[in-house]
Amino acid sequence: MKRWIVLPLSIGVVAMVYSCVTLRLSAEREYAAYDQLRAMGATGDDWISFTELITNRPPVVQIDIPASIPQGKSLALIRDMPNLEYVGLAYNKFSDSELDQLAGLSLHSIRFEGAFPSDSDANRLSRFRGLRFLTIPELNLSDESLAELRSVLPQCRVSVSVADESKREAEQ
Predict the structure, then answer these.
(1) What angle do CA 86, 114, 67 make, to 5 degrees?
(2) In 3D, which of 131, 80, 142 has the Cα closest to residue 108?
(3) By the 8 A CB rule, do 94 and 116 touch?
(4) Which residue, among 119, 23, 116, has the nearest Cα to 65 in the 3D structure?
(5) Residue 159: what are its φ and ψ, rounded to 5°?
(6) What is the DSSP letter of 1?
(7) What residues contact 142, with CB distance under 8 A and at least 6 apart?
(8) Partners of 86 in the β-ladder
(9) How far is the C-alpha of 41 from the C-alpha of 18, rounded, in Å?
(10) What is the pLDDT of residue 1?
């Protein structure tokens, strides 16, 4: 083969091998984080995709994290889950840095299940500009705060989840 063909071909093969190894290592970190969260009580789901052919693992796309998992630990672990699109969080409060961390992920949907957000937190959620779906517990926000939230996130479908009867009875 001629040298002008071999060199670009060799560079292409090396680049492809490097990409596959990098993708595989990323999938290993993602599953290590996912396994740790599941061991602590989180539930989630993965998705069949083309990358599974290379990594041998489907990407994790959604996870529900209960309040029993330490908040700092769960937020640190979901950073290693680059394919995550949905997260359900049952925590009662978030600091600005924790909200910034969540906003930095490529999430499409967030479901809050604790006492967060309250009326005073509505404007803090404006950092989620790329979010398509946001679900909050039904009694957390007043109608005015809900309207304010919908106006600062016009591209996002903000919905209110209805608590099931057993949760309502436990709160009363």
Answers:
(1) 80
(2) 131
(3) yes
(4) 116
(5) -125, 160
(6) -
(7) 119
(8) 62, 109
(9) 35
(10) 55
Residue with tokens 């998992």: 69
Token digits of residue 165: 């009867």
Q: How many other C-beta atoms lie within 10 A of the C-beta of residue 147? A: 12
CA torsion 105-110-115-120 (nearest 10°) is 70
Q: Which residue has the tokens 């009326």?
A: 119
Tell me the Cα Rg of the chain.
20
The answer to whether the beta carbons of residues 153 and 129 sit under 8 Å apart is yes
**141: which 2 tokens?**
């926000």
- Dihedral sign (CA 79, 108, 86, 56): negative
> What does the pLDDT profile of the chain (172 residues) look like in tens digits?
566 666 666 777 777 766 666 767 777 788 788 788 888 888 877 665 555 556 566 778 889 999 999 999 999 999 888 888 999 999 999 999 999 999 999 899 999 998 999 998 888 998 998 899 999 998 889 999 999 999 999 999 999 988 654 444 444 4
**Could you give the angle at which helices 71-78 and 96-103 cross, rounded to 10 degrees?**
20
Distance CA 34, CA 72 (A): 15
As a whole number of angstroms, the distance between CA 120 and CA 106 comes to: 25
User: Both tokens of residue 99?
Assistant: 């909200």
